[in-house]
Each structure stands twice: as C-alpha cells, then as structure tokens.
Amino acid sequence: MGKAFLRRFVTYRINYRSCGILCASNMGNEKRTVLITGFGPFGEHSVNASWVAVQNLKQRNLLPDVNVHIEEIPVDYQEVSHIVPELWKRKDPALVVHVGVSGIADKLTLEQRAHNVGYHRKDVKGKTPNKECCREEGEECICAGLDMSRVSAEINDTDNELQAEVSEDAGRYLCDFSYYTSLSINKSRSAFIHVPPLNQPYTEDQLAVGLAMAISSMLKQLPE
Question: Is the dihedral of CA 103, 106, 107, 110 positive or negative?
C-alpha cells in the first residue's frame, strides 16, 4: 500500500510541475525558501511524529523546487518565543510551516487559526508563559491568510490513502503557541499542520508525502 501511495504522489508531482505551478523556480532561477519545524519529545511522545515526518520530507527531497530548511524546536514556551522570531529573521522564508503531533488526530489536520490566551498546560520544563498568553495585548485569535479548506480539498481530491481536514482549534499548547507567534509576524505566510502519531494510521513516509502535498498547495496561494 505504501509503495502504491508513493507512486501516485510521484505522478501527482509530475503532473503538477507540468502545469508550471509547483513553485517559483519554474519561473526564474531563485528558489523560494520554506521553513518547516517539528517538535521535540514530550509526555507520551518520546519520539515525536512531527519531527520524524519533517526529517523524512527533507531527506527524500519531496519538495525539490524550493529551498527546504527544517528545524526541531523544543516543547518549551520560552524557547519557542525566541527561536521562532529568530528563524524568521535569519531565513526570510516565503512560507513557515509548523508541524506538531496530536494524539487525537487520525488525519492530516490543517489549522486555520491560533489563540493568544489560555496556555495553562506546563511545558517540558514545568512552566507556562507569562500571564498564560503568547503576546500581552495581542489579538485574541489570528486567522491564517492561507485558505486551509482549499489545501484540504486538494489533498482529498488526490488519489491517495491519506486524508486531510481543517481545524479551528490548535489546542492551546506549544502547537497553538508557536502558530500564534508566526501568525503575529506574518499571517499570510504561516501555517500549522497536526499529524497523527506514527502508524496511527499513517507511516512516516505517508506523513512526509502528505506534508509535501499540503505545502505545495499552500505555495500556490502565495505570490511568486
């Protein structure tokens, strides 16, 4: 099943490129940079599926027409509040995609918005953010400029075993926190994707392909 799935994705990618819409490299010499983050271990997730899938995507070169930079970030509020803005400054990415694991997800879950308050769950250091919020006096919610319904529909309309759905609640933990941080920097170029734990039901190869499909779809919504 996995090999058939990968063959179909290769066909999908070839057809996608033949239309001249995969990414900016088809229009010029410079590739756009996509920053993809995954999380380190926490709680019951001693191996975090998000980071495994992100590494798999990079290692297999599933997005060959963009400069893919990957980064593992800790499940730590203070670290995330420093690392994420610094990555934006250093990499100047066309798109930032944060990836996290959700124990209740059984599909690729595309988050449409993030929240500023309600962060009472402790991180791996046993701490919560100041005043349990991401940014003091920040907006209560920030919605992504990218249309996640379009991304979900494109994935689901493709002949593959992996399915996607859209969510309006990223969970008010480090996933939500990191997403809000990026949305507050540039809501038009930020995204968050939740993946299920490994093999529940998707393998790391399938998750990586799903991430690549989602990111390719997102790039089509951005100006060249």
Answer: negative
pLDDT tens, residue by residue, 130-144: 999 999 999 999 999
Assess whether 161 carries a catalytic annotation: no
Q: Is 98 a catalytic residue?
A: no
Contacts of 51 (CB under 8 A, 6+ apart): 38, 39, 40, 72, 99
What pTM was computed for the model? 0.88
Q: Which of 111, 133, 154, 204 is catalytic?
A: 111
134 is an active site residue: no
- DSSP character string of 8-64: HHHHHHHHHHHTT-S-GGGTSSPPPEEEEEEE--BTTBSS-HHHHHHHHHHHTTS-T
Closest by alpha carbon to 111, among 140, 144, 141, 70? 144
